[in-house]
Amino acid sequence: MEGWDVSVWDLRSDTVTKPCDEMRRAMAEAVVGDDVYEEDPTVRELEALGARLLGKEAALFVASGTMGNLIALLTHCGRGQGAVVGARSHIYNYEGGGMAALGGVMPLVVDDGTGLPSTEDLLGACRDASNVHFVEARLLCLENTHNASGGRAASPEAMEPLCALAREKGLSVHLDGARVFNAAVALGVDACRYGALVDSVQICLSKGLGAPVGSLLCGDGTFVREARKWRKRLGGGMRQAGVLAAAGLVALRSRIDRLAEDHEKARRLSLLLRREGLDLLDIPDATNMIYFRLPRGTEPHRFVDLCRNEGVLVGFPARDLVRLVTHLDLPEEAVDDVARSLVKAVRAL
Ligand SMILES: *Cc1c(COP(=O)(O)O)cnc(C)c1O
User: Fold this and answer.
1) Which residues carry this modification: N6-(pyridoxal phosphate)lysine (predicted)?
2) pTM for the whole thing?
3) Number of the ligand 1 atom closest to the C-alpha atom of 66
């Protein structure tokens, strides 16, 4: 494709996006200082902007989404305390069990098959902590958009009863908002509305927003002061981190509304694939992800190889489900090509 020097389209994840020239220039020209001394003006600017976008008092620049979630868990919970997490959540499945390994935090697992747990299940996880048998639930973790249920966006109205119940039961609420701006853009709501419902939010700069590195953990001033100490303990206190934060600033200033284009590309791609008879999951309030089932008995490796031969990289199938993610390095003009290649790969099975 003209202007795009690629031989394959990479739809494994939106994390594969590369920093654009504007970001690279901003990184090269960033004014920096020692951020452990809180003297890096670019990091401070990024943290202030992130906090403002989520309607929070403060934010902390961290190396990754995993680190942001882990620091939130460590700040909200002590050893032997419980955090309510979804059975299919990123925190529970894809973060190396950090909450247990490093925090001694007990996961209290609830069903989140449709993206959010039910209030009944949340209530069931909050058992009477005065009984010596039971772990004390301290935190509810929600994820939006919810990766495993298809990148589904949950509205603030849908989250509200869970957050209210958590608060009533004395739990804090953390939002794994790796892609919360995808949710906000898809549903046309201000991200501050999500921020207002929870005590802390982790947002990823390095996914659909296109920055090369980094996440922000947002919360009130006291929370972020404590989180800063956890970040240092984990070895995440970076010095002239402004060179990284500069790319994050470009991401937050000019890449949020653009996420709608990724959603549109996903919509078009699902339409084309469905038309060709592929078995797509029906995802309400879809964003930038598509999931489809492989024919029964397919060897996932074989399908991944066939796709690669056709010039498309796909997420490695979990069981028989293939994930495709649209992002800013997949031009709109390539969507039809990608669909054709995928259909060819399926037909070759
Ligand atoms: C990617 C992701 C994370 C972790 O972010 P990393 O920067 O890859 O560590 C956390 N939660 C969700 C929902 C994610 O998609």
Assistant:
1) 207
2) 0.97
3) 9
